[in-house]
Design a protein that fits this description.
Elements lengths: L2 H24 L4 H12 L4 E4 L6 H11 L4 E5 L6 H5 E6 L4 E6 L6 E5 L6 H5 L1 H7 L1 E4 L2 E4 L5 E6 L12 H4 L4 E3 L6 H11 L14 H12 L5 H16 L3 E3 L3 H17 L7 H12 L4 E2 L1 H5 L4 H11 L8
Parallel strand pairs: 1-8, 1-9, 2-5, 5-8
Antiparallel strand pairs: 3-4, 6-7, 10-11
């Protein structure tokens, strides 16, 4: 590995560590969730955080935005939210006699879609082009979105009243789905002590900026993936499509996004190459929300996470030189 490559990987490692430490000052006791958020950021992916209210989903997204010193906008999804509230709208200006584009909530480096499953499916779908193409088309004009661009959407479990399940096409746009979970007793006591009187985000100082993040993204893209590791990834995808309990397996897009996430994980560890553990370690958060179980498995109470973990165990891990 040449010196320039080593320097680039060292920069990624430094940025990841700095962001991890900064976010950890606010989000206590959730190092795995924080690592996955940073992984999604460096992989240019979008994140879906699914959990019950009050466990810090929105706080995590807002803390990341401040730590990387990027623009952030929060969109509260409600049943009456319109697609134009997301993408923007052209408004006639009497002063100029022309239509002017008024950007919607999606025009920011980091878009926080709070309780996305409380909006109608039509409004949910307004995010599709932005998440996939990183641009918005309004009245025949295409408007590019700032870089880096990341959507962190939160949703409550679909069993709760007044929610709409995300359609498969929408879920497939998210690189990963994670859950926060309740904090440990020690973390919750620390939260009461540190967060009771002031907003914990206020004293947080940025530790990097958009230019540095995009430089890290470029380094992540160049991380090497050996053909045997690619074969391992594809074998996992294929296994999700052939297990009898799974009605809809992981898509080719899922494989591409899992590989990008594995590259980010490798770079965050200071490696210029992906190992099988990067793939298997990210398979559940990257694939579980994309697969659908058949009726028999649902009635039997099976979970997508358990079936996916079983599928990963059934695929032989490549050995030898990488």
């Amino acid at each position: 590995m040449d010196l320039e490559r080593e320097r680039e990987l060292a920069d990624v490692l430094g940025v990841a560590q700095a962001v991890r430490q900064a976010v950890g000052q606010v989000i206590e006791g959730k190092p795995e969730a924080v690592d996955l958020v940073i992984t999604a950021l460096l992989a240019e992916g979008h994140l879906l955080i699914e959990d019950v209210p009050g466990v810090g989903k929105t706080m995590l997204a807002k803390t990341l935005a401040k730590a990387i010193d990027c623009t952030a906008r929060r969109v509260q999804f409600t049943p009456d939210l319109l697609p134009s509230d997301i993408t923007g709208v052209s408004v006639y200006s009497q002063a100029t006699g022309e239509f002017e584009f008024k950007p919607g909530g999606v025009f920011a480096n980091l878009v926080i879609g709070d309780e996305i499953n409380r909006a109608s499916p039509k409004t949910q779908s307004a995010l599709l082009e932005a998440m996939e193409e990183r641009r918005v088309s309004v009245d025949g004009t295409t408007h590019p979105l700032p870089r880096p661009f990341m959507v962190i959407a939160t949703q409550n479990p679909i069993e709760m009243e007044g929610t709409y399940p995300l359609p498969e096409a929408q879920r497939d746009r998210f690189l990963m789905r994670i859950s926060m979970g309740y904090p440990s007793a020690e973390s919750e006591v620390a939260m009461l002590e540190h967060h009771g009187e002031v907003d914990p985000i206020d004293p947080l100082q940025p530790v990097t900026d958009a230019a540095a993040v995009m430089a890290c993204v470029g380094t992540v893209r160049r991380v090497f993936v050996h053909p045997s590791v690619k074969d391992y990834l594809v074998a996992i995808l294929h296994r999700t499509r052939t297990r009898p309990e799974i009605r809809l397996g992981a898509s080719p897009r899922a494989g591409l996004q899992l590989m990008r996430a594995a590259k980010a994980r490798a770079a965050m560890a200071g490696r210029g190459y992906v190992i099988p553990d990067d793939i298997s370690g990210l398979a559940v958060p990257a694939l579980a929300h994309r697969i659908l179980l058949n009726t028999h498995a649902q009635l039997a109470g099976r979970e997508a996470v358990d079936l996916l973990e079983a599928a990963v165990r059934e695929v032989p891990v490549p050995t030898g030189r990488r």
